[in-house]
């Protein structure tokens, strides 16, 4: 078991708030595809375990159907909200963002969230091209409203490309502090210039699916897996911790999940070492030889191959 006293550092956001550099997510395998009114106690217990181990960044979303479980975990853990960093996302109820956030807060059993995100560019009723600039700008104005009301300390987006980010910035009074995207060595967004856009405008990057190269069977061939294994041996950690550290060493915040306490504990070992600049670059180079998108592939690949 990893040392429970491992400290997770924070990254300063553009508005001055700070986000922990490792998040615990309640999407992917926890995602509810049917009736979301029934409480999944396995998720409640897993989230409580994450909190016990020292994870403070807790990531949810309206569409996951898991906000109630996350709320119970927070309540039953008896950890003050001020010691946590709670994130949720809006969609499909984008037409009334203040009401959507109020509903999320009720499920989460909190008075505010630390970070509220627009979950994607594909609003209800839009085609594969995504929402129009005008619709994105209208939604962002509502995001600014909930921040002004104190219901969200920080606001941002998820799954946005430079085109949608430009639309936000064209009318924003408050710029997004973060864009949460699928990011791993096989999906580095080089051709779109997305990460360069983030850096230019002071927008932080959070990564979901950071372990894709080791958890998806269709990504385990090629040179990268062997190199990850060699680094894991060097640092006496797993390939998963190498991938998490690879993100952290680039100031990218990884969000991961597991139902297994040992695995969640082991992930914290990513805080105990640093990759060399040459190792970070080698992972980039080997990963760039393969393109693989694990989430939203048909929609994104019609607009962005990076």
UniProtKB/TrEMBL annotation:
Entries under Pfam families matching the protein: Aldo_ket_red
Site (Lowers pKa of active site Tyr): 89
Catalytic residue positions: 64
Coiled-coil features, chain-numbered ranges: none
Entry annotated with the keyword Oxidoreductase: yes
Domain NADP-dependent oxidoreductase per the UniProt entry, residue ranges: 26-286
PROSITE patterns: ALDOKETO_REDUCTASE_2
GO molecular function: oxidoreductase activity, acting on NAD(P)H as acceptor; oxidoreductase activity, acting on the CH-OH group of donors, NAD or NADP as acceptor
Keywords: NADP, Oxidoreductase
Name of this chain's protein: Aldo-keto reductase family 1 member C13
Family: Belongs to the aldo/keto reductase family.
Positions bound to substrate: 119
Matching PANTHER family: 2,5-DIKETO-D-GLUCONIC ACID REDUCTASE, NADP-DEPENDENT OXIDOREDUCTASE DOMAIN-CONTAINING PROTEIN
InterPro entries given in the database record: AKR, AKR3C2/3, Aldo/ket_reductase_CS, NAD(P)_OxRdtase_dom_sf, NADP_OxRdtase_dom
Record's keyword annotation contains Cytoplasm: no
